[in-house]
Amino acid sequence: MRAFAPRKTNLLETFENLGLAPMLLKNLAGLGLTKPTPIQAKAIPQIVRGRDILGLAQTGTGKTAAFGLPMLTRILAYGKRPAPKTVRALVLAPTRELATQIHDNLAAYAEGAPVRIQRVVGGASLNVQAEKLSKGCDVLIATPGRLIDLIERRALVLSETKYLVLDEADQMLDIGFIHTLRRIAKLIPAERQTLLFSATMPKLMEELAASYLSDPIRVEVATPGKAAEKIDQGVHFTTQGEKAALLAEYISRHPGELAVVFNRTKHGSDKLTKLLEKWGFSVTAIHGNKSQGQRERALSAFRASEVQVLVATDVAARGLDIPQVAHVYNYDLPNVPENYVHRIGRTARAGRDGRAVAFCGPLEMSDLRAIEAAMGAKIPVIGGEPHAEGGTRPAPGRNSQPKKQHRGQGPKPARAGEAKPARKPDAKPAAQRGGRAEGHAPAGGQAAPKRPARAQRGH
Ligand code: AMP
Predict the structure, then answer these.
(1) For a substitution probing ligand 1, which of 321, 322, 346 has the most ligand atoms within 8 Å of its CB?
(2) What is the residue with the minimal CA distance to atom 14 of ligand 1?
């Protein structure tokens, strides 16, 4: 099996000569997939041949089809149904949203083909999921915690599993799933094909890859940590207390355009959402404290452009693929520098343009420098004056979403949603009151937000 020499990649090739099942090829054109992306052209032939893959690729590169199409091709070749409670291919993803996205993509690729594809994630009924698994499934997409719950209930066994996909593996490590992953891997026969995808390659990931993969082919399609070039980025220096009003000014300049606002904490996300709602914005939020139903409703309303602004924490929004997102606002800078790249990658998708604005408070200068160091590039200043260096906030916990995080200035910390605009608390920002924000540029160019002035470049 290992005797094949890796084939030279011809990026002009079509899906037809990658070795995929004809049944799947029929569906691709209808889904707008006509030409393989670089990761697909490189990975699909190797996976069809049974090789393990270490894929260094971010969401948006087409990696779901890169692992999904060849895996489905191999599973279709079985020609018989899975045994009760067994799973032929297990796909692990860090978040419910990503699991849903993978499930929906694979189901679309396999439309009309005799394969059973299921999804199990936290927040939904264990009994219903156990029932779904009783007949066995070809492909199961799961979040690690829920999978363990179901295994402990004896709702499924992994003894027949021949394929294991770890998607967004670095985020699974960030969330602290390492022990759960180790437990799950032990339950899957060693005689299997393993595909590991990660946007970054921290040391722990190297260890994980070394212990899970057998003689893998390494496929890399974008330099990890390199921000998408199509994204127009900027940093606006401001105070913690002025962030909410500043955000409102930015959002108001782009009526009807979808924006994702990143907040570091669940509590801060809720507070900010309420404040924006009060000011008349159409806004919803997703984070780990929301129920599964709430998360799905929020996302589908945002996807359908029924809601303009999505306030999210890192964990909930990683990997989301919503092509209409035109703006990403980093209301708080992320405490893990690499997350900046993941956050801004929610925009400029599917060939569109995108803008990303980071609001940098006085205690976030070291976070900003860490992000710039990770990217190997400076973020252009588009407003305010850089704060004095040296102010740092308390060291974050191991988890990317600390339960409590006060980062305001002065003796009484100001939390995100409590950040009051400089106007009367109940007053709406200028644009929401029907007036135009001062400094609005004519259509096509956007000028400085009204306050704090000193923007140096339109955004
Ligand atoms: P992913 O990186 O798997 O999350 O995919 C990102 C987006 O690219 C999804 O909306 C896919 O449907 C889309 N996509 C995947 N492969 C292709 C392709 N070959 N051509 C065009 N779009 C694609």
Answers:
(1) 321
(2) 62
Query: In this predicted structure, what is the pLDDT of residue 4?
Result: 35
User: How many angstroms is it from 116 CA to the middle of ligand 1?
Assistant: 22
CA–CA distance, 158 with 124 (Å, rounded to integer): 21
Confidence of residue 394 (pLDDT cuts 50, 70, 90): low
pLDDT by residue (tens digit) across 187-197? 999 999 999 99
The larger pLDDT score, comparing residue 381 to residue 335, is at 381
Residue corresponding to tokens 């989301």? 320
**What band does 68 get if pLDDT is binned at 50, 70 and 90?**
very high
Residue 450 has pLDDT above 70, yes or no: no
* Cα–Cα distance, 115 to 396 (Å, whole number): 44
Helices and strands in the chain: count of H runs, count of E runs: 15, 14
**Strand ranges in 190-251 using DSSP code E only, listed in sequence order:** 193-198, 217-220, 231-237
Q: Which of 349, 331, 326, 348 is nearest to 270 (CA)?
A: 331
Q: Domains of the chain, with CATH numbers?
A: 15-220 (3.40.50.300), 231-391+423-452 (3.40.50.300)
Burial class (CB in 10 A: 0-12, 13-18, 19+), 238: buried
Q: Angle at CA 338, nearest 5°, toward 337 and 340?
A: 75
Determine if residue 64 is left, alpha or beta; phi over 0 gives left, psi from -120 to 50 gives alpha, anything else beta.
Answer: alpha
